[in-house]
Amino acid sequence: MKPSQSDTSQPGRGRCAACSNEAASSCAGCLGAPAYGNGQPPQRTFYCTAQCQKAHWSTHKAECKLLQTRKLVFRAATVLDAMMAVVDAKEEKAMIWLAGFLTELFKGIAVTVEEVTAIIPANGATSTRPVYKVTLNSAPEAWAIDPKQAYPPSLWLAYIRVDAFKIESIKPLGFHRHTEGGVDPVTRALERQIATIVATRDGNLGSLLKASESAFKLRLQQLVEEVRSGADSTSAEETQSSLSIPAQVPANKLYHIRPLPGKGQAMVAAGKIPKGTCIIAESPTITIPGSPHDPAGVNQLITSQLSNLPAATRRQYYTLHNHYATAAPPIPPAVGIARTNALPFGHNSLSGGIFLHASRINHSCTHNAENTWNASLGKLKIYAIRDIKPGSEITISYIEGFKPYNQRQAHFLSAFGFRCVCERCEVTDSKRKESDDRLRRLVQLEEEIGDGVGIVATPLACLRKAREMLRLLNEEGLGGSTVARAYYDAFQVAIANGDQARAKVFAKRCYASRVMVAGEDSEDAAKAKEMMKRPAEHRLFGTTMKWKQAAGKVPSGLSEEAFENWLWREKGTS
Ligand SMILES: C[S@@+](CC[C@H](N)C(=O)[O-])C[C@H]1O[C@@H](n2cnc3c(N)ncnc32)[C@H](O)[C@@H]1O
Fold it and tell me: Distance between CA 145 and CA 109 in Å, rounded?
């Protein structure tokens, strides 16, 4: 063990255990070993140099290992206290449900953990109490851990001398689990979870106890939340099934939430959903502000909101998918769930919310629905942007903008842990290249139109670019708000150059797309409606009057093709 300089709880200097010279460093392995018995921490072992420590190791080793193990026992007791708080277990039930967990927790620390029934004095009479006897593997020493108050544990010899009146029985760990039956649902949930809890910690739950102080606290919190969510989801399921209410089917039955192979839970159309239908309007269960916060700060924000919610809602939150469950360094589960499931409060917004239903919607690059935040309602709305057949999955897009295939997949993998296999992604190399070229061109067109210069300097070229965008979007199978934006671009070109007639038509098309993806009551639809009704009130109107045309000059009686030619100012039209 390296000598350590840091310890504030004990005097900082002493005599070197090897040579008796004055020394300021002490063995880091046993430093901070807990106090017990007389309440005093064990004496620190000082060394003046690393050489002295090395020379003294054979003498110090046994004591050091013992003290290190005691540190682990005390931490294990902290873990047990936290676990008991989660399930609010009655003490007599503790031995039943904790058996499997304790086996894992004390692996490599204890040779045996036994279930003891002690008789203790109680108000002039006696009562029985369940206690764990933990016999260490590093020394012939045992500790008593009372599940009702696990921390601090007591040395076994002190416990039987001072606390216990008599020991009624000592049974192997798991004895009561197997003889007492009638395990409650929370216990069953925990037992089901143990294998996963251990597997996600590299098969060694005990490693939790060996972490640094700050990592230990964080990991303990993570464990507790994991266990709480498992217990909560089980009781939620049981409550639902006991009431015979199918899980998460809304009254209007537009969708079901059910698992799909390889995708976890998913939202599936309960019947035919026509394009433009509002599938769901949902208030956020949790809101996450956009300003940057460290995971601990975000955790605090989320858990304080959760604590104000009904228990059933809290449970549902913890059933949401957590892509960051095994992240290193660890991320608190509440935060991992938020990162996996948050939907933004508006286009490019950094703040967002967690929605118990909408957060179940999976991604597709050929999504058939769009999410939109309606600030005045304070609700997230999901609209069908294509007709959706009964039984088809309802999907949205998890990305903004026009990203080529590799960028999309890299994002899905790192942020969400999946590979998209939709019809746009699973194509031949040549089709993929065509698609990537289109997407790059779309980015270019967006930038060129968006810089504002071309709108007045080269309006016709700009109008052509807006039309090209619409064609590429159509070829790429993209609809929804991207189409509305392209029509808005065309509107701006027309109105900036004084053409109210064309501006009116573009605004009408933009409005129709906005209504389809965000509803009549959305802010975007309201803006587009205003543009359509009073194009001349737009701030860009008359920047130039190159194309001056009154609003009433929209031609009538033209064929569709002739009308489009007029609209886009193709040759021979004005
Ligand atoms: C917001 S959640 C969606 C609901 C989630 N499937 C569930 O079980 O709760 C995001 C997670 O869903 C999964 N997911 C989303 N889209 C997917 C897709 N296209 N293919 C596979 N998994 C997907 C990923 O595990 C992702 O981390």
Answer: 14
How far, rounded to the nearest angstrom, does the alpha carbon of residue 216 sit from its chain's CA centroid? 21
| Token pair of 179 as six digits | 């003889």
* DSSP sequence for 432-461: HHHHHHHHHHHHHHHHHHHTSHHHHHSHHH
Structure tokens at 119: 């008789």
Q: Give CA–CA dist 266/274, Å, rounded.
A: 19
pLDDT digits (tens, 9 = 90+) for 98-111: 788 888 899 889 99
- C-alpha distances out from residue 431 to 399, 409, 426, 438, Å: 21, 16, 9, 11
CATH 1.10.150 fits 429-567, yes or no: no
Domains in the chain: boundaries: 3-64, 72-210, 255-416, 429-567
User: Ligand 1 pocket check: which of 257, 258, 263, 396 to mutate, most ligand atoms within 8 Å of Cβ?
Assistant: 263
Q: What is the biggest distance separating any 2 CA atoms in the chain, rounded to whole angstroms?
A: 108
**What single letter denotes the amino acid at residue 101?**
F
Mutating to test ligand 1, I would choose from 416, 420, 423 the residue with most ligand atoms within 8 A of its C-beta, which is 416
How far apart, in whole angstroms, are the C-alpha atoms of residue 514 and residue 61? 73
| 361 CA distance to ligand 1 middle (Å) | 7
Q: How far is residue 68's CA from residue 63's CA, in Å, rounded to a whole number?
A: 9
For residue 44, the CA-to-ligand 1 centroid distance in Å is 52
Is 255-416 assigned to CATH 3.20.20.70? no
Helix (H), strand (E) counts: the chain: 17, 20
Global confidence as pTM: 0.61
pLDDT tens profile 30-80? 887 886 655 566 788 899 999 999 999 999 898 888 888 888 999 999 998
